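Example complex used in Figure S2.
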Amino acid sequence: MARTRIALAGNPNSGKTTVFNKLTGSSQRVGNWPGVTIDRKEGRLKGADGVDIVDLPGIYSLSPYSPEEIVSRDFLLKDRPEAVIDIVDASNLERNLYLTTQIVEAGLPTVIALNMIDVARKNNVEIDSEVLSSAFGCKVVETAATKREGLDELSREAVEASKGRRECVIRYSEGLERHASEVASLIEGSVPAESARWYALKILERDEMALASVPEESREAVEKAISDMEGEFGDEADSIVAGERYAFIERTVAAAVKRDGRVGRETPSDRVDKIVTNRWLGLPIFALVMFFTYYISISTIGTMGTDWVNDEFFGNILIPGTEEWLADNAVNEVLSALIVDGIISGVGAVLGFLPQILVLFVMLSILEDCGYMARVAFVMDRLFRRFGLSGKSFIPILIGTGCGVPGILSAKTIEGERERRITAMTTTFIPCSAKLPLIALISGAIFFESPWIAVSTYFMGIFCILLSGLILKKWRTLSGPSAPFMMELPAYHVPSLTGVIRSTLERGWAFVKKAGTFILLACVAIWFLSAFDWGFHMVEEVEESMLADIGNALKWIFAPLGWGDEWEFTVSSFTGILAKENIVGTMGILFGFSEDDLEGSASFWGAVAARFGEGTVGSLAAYSFMAFNLICVPCLAAVGAMRRELGSWRDTAKAAAYQCVLAYIVAMLIYQFGCAIAGEPSPWIVAAAGVLIALVYILAAKDPFAPLARAMDRVRGRGE
Amino acid sequence: MQARIVRRGGGVNTLEGLGVGEEAVVARVTGDGKLRKRILDMGITKGCRIRKVKVAPLGDPIEVALRGYELSIRKEDAASVEIEPAEAEPAGEA
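Predicted assembly (814 residues):
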């Protein structure tokens, strides 16, 4: 027997993902900003045989305008699930029920979940489910998903509903109904009978995708019906239908909802919002929140943990312990070298940062859960729009400070094609947690642990994102008007402790898992290349190894950046493409994280600092190395996420090339101009000046890429 | 024909020009395509009461309250929403 599919539909931020997690026992991420779910996800309904739950992305309507809407619309109308659970936010009924009217119009057996009923009750809103139930012609179940309230009943009702069929009982005004039945008879046979009403109403709205299903011979009659209706109502088609739906909802809500007399007074959320997005305090508060988040995770609490792990755990416990054990058990020399110099040095150099990363994840999940993200977008929109981005671009960037992969994927909620693509291409300029080890290493080894180094990398990330916005929006395929920016500002709530802990542990575990698998393998490979020569003989000095030869062959590329003399840096940068943690992991192997005196970080830092050279020029080279590796193409996982967002490998390759070129330019400008200012210019300063002039030209000219585009057209034209 | 209130240099009144804290009723949604559809879907339909709550720190976008929830909308998009003055709500605002 075929499996029963029950779709979960609802507005963004209506708590769909929480319901999905509870119904299926899985643990997808939730957050208090609209659009956490971006693809449809499937899971098995707990406690029932043969029933799948399909979580659709949150949408406001079944319009065909955003990718989310199209995914949901196709699934509901083409795949036709056996039943739909429509999650409705009880504290925000009117707008949530707008989607409900369209689902019911589609003739799908529906169960309404009045979710967050506890919040509504707390606001003294009483809802009569019976009234809603008879108006929409479907069962209504009150739920509070975070407290598991009503969910058993909900799944029972949904399974029950999936066995039957449902006709739409919603009736609009006589005028609209007359035209709807006229259109329905005109398209009879060309659309599925059970959703004929939905198609008829969508056609009356002049919905392009629905209009396409009108048979050729009926086009004229349908057009006439629409214009007759517009004449009768004295309004435009889409406005009439939307207005009728909302009028129906208003009537129903007025009959079903009893509000306490105190409604309309300020909620605590309103009071918080008055301060947080205040005209004058909004920006300073935002800056403070950001500073505090990263100060706690990177500089204070996080550093204490990291120091302990590096000095105590690795330096005094793990490494001596392992060496002793290996010596006692007379383990083969090559194998013990692999374990101590390869695995512990490489993976250890990465895992040492786990405390900092865990603290950062705690801070981020609090920010995501409380509702501040939407305010960030609200506050930043004006600024970001100037640079071809949207206020919502800031959400991927913030998430990207944890990990670029979910960051890039969350760009999907941005409405505008151009804004979405530019955001996906630039999000990883902001340092993610995997880049923290590198930042901490450079600031510790070269800059006396100055907190300003970490701060400066975030500013550099933002600067590169904004600069890229300006450059990329001039690129032909990315130019065009900006898309509307309309976003619900959800009520704040206090983050749940279990939610924060769960999300932190999940992300932390993913980091550890990566260190234990991917990075472990890379470290073994790097160690192998660094311990043997081309004849597979173990080398005494790393300078004789295969790795040294590879690095030496390629290091000239980075000469203008100031760190092309030492092959180790070239090799580290290349291993960073697999995973950014590898940069430090590789350096840990090459510079001996676990060298003789076992003073862990101290000698490692010393070795790194010595290779970059002394004085200002050495410091500049170190900073340039860090800048290049932070900005250039992200790890493979993030490139994969970019591919999903951009839609083709071709565009992904272009984006990756752009990232590398920008990284090269930024690092070169920093190093060359830095050296010139310090009074020790190198001959490369001429090239750097040329690059700077070209950059200024691109920013100033109206259409700087036109000659390039024409040349590409010519090449393409010749090829055809 | 609809009566249109003329203010500030003879233009039609839109949501963009509404003062902070002021309330109005939606008269018509202009514009086309995605923007127009999105405005309607979010519940900004003819006859709906709408209040401007605040302006973002950099002057754009604005926050409006309607149908029991809060929405952020850019000024240029809000210019597509024509409004007329609201009569005082019978129940009054507590």
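Residues 6-85 of chain B form a domain with the SH3 type barrels. fold (CATH 2.30.30.90). The longest strand of chain B covers residues 23-29.
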